[in-house]
Amino acid sequence: MEIYPASLGKLIDELSKLPGIGRKSAERLSLHILRSPKAFAQDLANSLLEVKEKIHFCSICFTITDIDPCPICSDKRRENGILCVVEGPGDQLAIERSGSYKGRYHVLQGVLSPLDGIGVEDIRMAELMSRLQRENIQEVILALNPTVEGEATASYLSDILSKKGLVTSRIALGIPHGGDIKYIDDMTIKTAINNRSPMSS
Length: 201
Known about the structure:
- With about 200 residues, the chain is α/β, with parallel strands linked by helices.
- The chain has two domains: about 5-55, Helicase, Ruva Protein, domain 3 (Orthogonal Bundle), CATH 1.10.8; about 75-170, Dna Topoisomerase Vi A Subunit, Chain: A, domain 2.
- Helix content is about 45%, strand content about 10%.
- The chain has helices at about 5-15, 25-35, 40-55, 70-75, 90-100, 125-135, 150-165, 185-195; strands at about 55, 65, 80-85, 105, 140-145, 165-170.
- It has a four-stranded parallel β-sheet with strand order 4-3-5-6. A two-stranded antiparallel sheet has the order 1-2.
- A hairpin with a 6-residue loop joins β1 and β2.
- The longest helix has 17 residues, at about 40-55.
- It is globular and about 65 Å long.
């Protein structure tokens, strides 16, 4: 028997569909919304609808944006001739937050995964190839996640880009700053050892 009123139970059900939100977290969030002023619930509902109505992909780099082109593609101060290729908008946002990169991006909107039926035509690969020529790109940084699919995509791209004579680099992977080696997984340690770099004196 459902212990909550039907409308509250429905809200719990919907919130529990969100990634990382289990049933208990959904109950806690739902009860918080119930206790909050009506204006809070109205603002939350409006924000959800606004996101669905206004957010779309940038026509140049394919990140998420509410204006087209996105602010990064429109920024004349960004470095031209260098392109950072990422899997999704979240990866691009993480790099931007670091403040370490001032060039432009290309968001693939996925990675190659033959087992899942995702091929070259299913991600923004053709658009990337078009940009390389149109924007006179000199260097491509592959900032793809170190998954089996991410590595396969990086390898595929590296082969194509090297044939085009472009400088291609891969972001360093390994032990995070402040990490404790004894708690790091085997694959990360292996990658860190294989990608070791000399120390400057």
